[in-house]
Design a protein that fits this description.
This protein is α+β, with helices and mostly antiparallel strands. It folds into 6 domains: about 5-160, no CATH class; about 175-320 and about 335-345, no CATH class; about 375-440, no CATH class; about 450-530, no CATH class; about 545-690, no CATH class; about 720-825, no CATH class. Strand 9 (about 480-485) and strand 10 (about 490) form a beta hairpin. The protein is globular. It is built from 32 helices and 23 strands.
């Protein structure tokens, strides 16, 4: 930018020639205010004219600008412009007119993420550097971030940074602050190590990069570097030590990695593979991957490149711990690029060991020190630590020398066994994460067509110290006999012990292919014995073909016409093994959501399109649709050409974006195997049940412009999906066992609750509430902890809506005790 009035250049020259420095100062400030202190383009001649003034006149001009700047308070742009002009005019003069003001301004700017008034930044920096002084670290960090954000349009800023060597990393992040302190302690080699880490800019480390890293490790000391590196990684993601303001942007930059430090963080992950491996190495790298993929509003994943570097570090680290972490992450990560990298790493390990991918994932699960299925004991002096798995959580408890349980860690253990105690506490967290991952892995086996030889299944599943806590709560097909583990052995449904040959085939039992009376009997048996399954199996919803689907022939409309939150839908889809591209409001084509089923030679598609675009709420900052509209579910041969449709809607067709392809017809639904049809439709039911705007209690006005009011009402109080119908069946058996049983009744689509002030109906699909008798809507927004309500025994884990419904029921049954003003004001 710059002034668009060449006559001002002549005015400046004329005032300079007249020696009228006061008027010249006023004119310069007038120009600076008009162009917001941007002097590029045709504004440059103005500064050239000023720079050519004799030294004594520049001294007078600078003095005049200083006096004018101090007539304005800090924060006023005129004062800022004046200080910038003083720096330009006064460069090379013997007197530093504004040192104190400059330092104050640099400190003020140091909490900005970026600042695009480059002339001001350059002037402030040059004023200090020309005087032979170092720039404050936080201000250097601002300069670097601003240059990275400038897309190469600030060459002057680049020249300034060429004069700056320290700090090697940007301060302000906990891990970087610790790294800078450790590097100073290591001396010159420490500084060179951090500089080397910053060169980690490629997709993976080169041999030359690793060679240089090994040399620096040897110079500093392997033990010292390993301890430092693991400590740095433990600090990643901690709150920033210098909080930044976002310059009006919606993204919270305090939740992102400093962009200048990100490459160094990738280098730290790579460096771990050059150090002695251990459980702690795998643990911090796994945490780095998950932390780097955590979603930041208006941005997306925090930093996928750093996540990928963590996977690279794990894949190059020897030992079972790293392999186990790769396997765990493969069940948790949904970001496609990182997931592909994880898959490649596991495939490479499997090939190297001559095993299948499934086998390597099973063998990778560690015991975490558990000596039996779900329990372990550790003698620490006169005390005993008990590590036990209860459901989906690990619990650490203690006994004293007399064998009596104590509530907290004995003082003698804290004093005498700090390392062992630290490792036990870490194991609890590791087990919790791995239990979730293994439950999800087992849940996916229905469509993986996974079978085991009985002897392998016993070792890898039923009797495994960790996986056994899940496998012993599931039903298995052992040969042709359904069985479950009870007491100390396997039993059939009638209670008879089950024996099997070592080579007998074992697979997970699925209700879709079993007689209805058998399914009901298993449900009753598990509920009677109060078994909580790690995921829905006995109570799993099944989706047989309907008459409507026989009529449509090649597609299902069962879940068409729903309004879903796109980002939530995409996340759920990825967890369930689907690929769903984020649809932007652009002139481009997109494939539908797809799940490939290689074991069946099939590809399932869920057709969706972007919704809206007329309202600011319809799009995110990046231009992505906030919501999508759903359509058909179809099946194709796995190698059939992909379907494409415009982002905002229109017919799908089998043509690439660059060339036509030979169409392949969708497959008749009658030919899709029962387990495949049922599991695919169950996935789609889950997407709708979780991501639909209809189950958002705050949408009673229909959302933007009221456009979705009719849909919200029909979904929030309408007919039940199969998932909700299963929930109704279960509640009809659970409600009589509740403490509020005398106040609750399952009635059609609702759970009716009698309070002291009103009667209520809770919809069993959406969880939305109506107050009777006038069907007045009651908005209750579940808190983050709603799913943790003590609702008593539940026969499976993972149905948050069930927990929300029970939580609301318990609250409304005692409606005179409600204190939340947002609820009481509606009663």
């Amino acid at each position: 930018m710059g002034t668009r009035h060449p006559e001002r250049v002549e005015t400046v020259r004329q005032l300079a020639a007249e020696g009228n420095m006061g008027l010249l100062a006023d004119e310069l400030l007038h120009i600076a205010t008009g162009n917001d202190n941007h002097w590029d383009g045709d504004g440059a001649p103005v500064l050239d004219a000023v720079r050519k003034l004799p030294e004594d006149e520049r001294m007078r001009l600078a003095d005049g600008l200083v006096k004018r700047s101090r007539a304005y308070p800090w924060g006023d742009p005129v004062r800022t412009h004046a200080l910038t002009l003083v720096g330009i005019v006064g460069r090379g003069l013997p007197q530093d007119f504004v040192r104190a003001d400059r330092l104050t301004r640099m400190e003020e700017l140091s909490t900005a993420h970026t600042f695009h008034a480059y002339h001001e930044l350059i002037t402030l920096a040059e004023g200090e550097l020309d005087a032979g002084r170092e720039l404050p670290g936080a201000f250097v960090a601002l300069l670097r971030r601003s240059l990275l954000d400038s897309y190469g349009v600030a060459p002057g800023l680049s020249l300034v940074l060429d004069r700056v060597e320290d700090p090697v990393l940007n301060p302000g992040e906990a891990w970087a602050d610790r790294a800078l302190a450790d590097a100073a302690r290591f001396g010159g080699a420490g500084r060179r190590l951090l500089a080397h880490l910053r060169t980690a800019t490629s997709a993976k480390p080169t041999g030359k990069w690793e060679q240089a890293g090994r040399a620096l490790i040897e110079e500093i000391g392997t033990g010292a570097v390993r301890e430092a590196v693991l400590n740095w990684l433990r600090l990643v993601g901690r709150p920033r030590t210098i909080q930044l303001y976002a310059n009006g942007r919606r993204a919270d930059h305090n939740s992102l990695y400093d962009p200048f430090n990100a490459d160094a963080l990738r280098g730290v992950a790579w460096l771990t593979a050059l150090l002695p491996a251990g459980q702690d190495t795998a643990r911090v790298l796994g945490a780095l991957v998950e932390m780097s993929l955590r979603k930041v509003p208006h941005v997306g994943p925090r930093n996928p490149k750093v996540a990928n570097a963590g996977v690279t570090g794990l894949s190059r680290t020897d030992g079972d711990a790293a392999l186990a972490e790769l396997a765990r992450l493969s069940t948790r990560v949904t970001y496609k690029g990182t997931l592909n990298q994880l898959s490649a790493a596991l495939d490479a390990r499997a090939q190297a060991l001559g095993l299948s991918r499934e086998e390597i994932e099973e063998l990778a699960v560690p015991a975490y020190g558990l000596t039996g299925v779900g329990h372990g004991e550790y003698e620490l002096g006169e005390s005993t630590a008990l590590l036990e798995v209860h459901g989906s959580r690990a619990v650490l408890s203690w006994r004293n020398a007399a064998g009596k349980a104590v509530k907290s860690v004995p003082a003698a253990v804290k004093r005498g066994f700090p390392d062992e105690l630290k490792e036990l506490k870490a194991a609890v967290k590791d087990i919790d994460k791995m239990l979730t991952a293994q439950a999800e892995r087992l849940d996916r086996q229905f469509l993986a067509r996974r079978t085991w030889a009985y002897q392998d299944w016993r070792r890898r599943c039923l009797d495994h110290p960790l996986v056994g806590t899940l496998a012993r709560r599931l039903i298995w097909m052992i040969g042709d006999t359904p069985a479950y583990f009870h007491g100390t052995e396997l039993h059939a449904l009638d209670g008879a012990p089950v024996r099997a040959a070592r080579t007998a085939v074992v697979e997970l039992w699925h209700p879709v292919s079993r007689p209805a009376d058998e399914v009901a009997a298993w449900r009753e048996r598990l509920e009677a014995e109060r078994v909580t399954q790690p995921f829905k199996q006995a109570h799993r919803e099944v989706y047989p073909l309907t008459d409507a689907e026989r009529t449509t022939g090649t597609y299902s409309n069962r879940f068409a016409g729903h309004i879903l939150r796109q980002h939530q839908f995409n996340s759920l889809a990825a967890v369930r093994g689907w690929t769903a591209r984020l649809r932007l409001s652009v002139d481009d084509s997109y494939p539908p959501a797809v799940r490939e089923l290689p074991q069946w030679g099939l590809r399932a598609e869920y057709w969706v399109e972007g919704s809206g675009g007329r309202d600011d709420d319809d799009l995110t900052d990046s231009g992505a649709y906030t919501r999508i509209v759903t359509d058909q579910v179809r099946f194709y041969p796995i190698d059939a050409p992909a379907n494409w449709a415009h982002a905002g809607g229109g017919a799908y067709r089998q043509a690439g974006r660059w060339q036509d392809t030979t169409p392949v017809d969708p497959l008749p639904l009658t030919g899709i195997p029962e387990p495949v049809l049922s599991e695919v439709l169950r996935d789609v039911d889950l997407f709708v049940g979780v991501a639909s705007v209809g189950n958002d209690p705050t949408w009673q006005d229909g959302g933007p412009g009221g456009r979705f009011r009719e849909y919200w009402t029909s979904y929030g109080f309408g007919e039940l999906s199969q998932t909700a119908a299963t929930r109704r069946e279960l509640l009809s058996r659970l409600v009589p066992r509740l403490a509020i049983a005398d106040r609750c009744t399952v009635d059609g689509r609702f759970l009716r609750v009698r309070g002291d002030r009103h009667a209520y109906r809770i919809h069993l699909g959406s969880g939305n509430v109506l107050i009777d008798p006038h069907e007045r809507y009651l908005c209750i927004v579940p808190s983050a902890g709603s799913g943790a309500v003590n609702a008593g025994y539940l026969p499976f884990e993972g149905d948050r809506m069930l927990a929300v419904i029970l939580s609301k029921a318990m609250m409304l049954a005692r409606d005179t005790e409600i204190t939340d003003a947002t609820i009481t004001s509606q009663l």
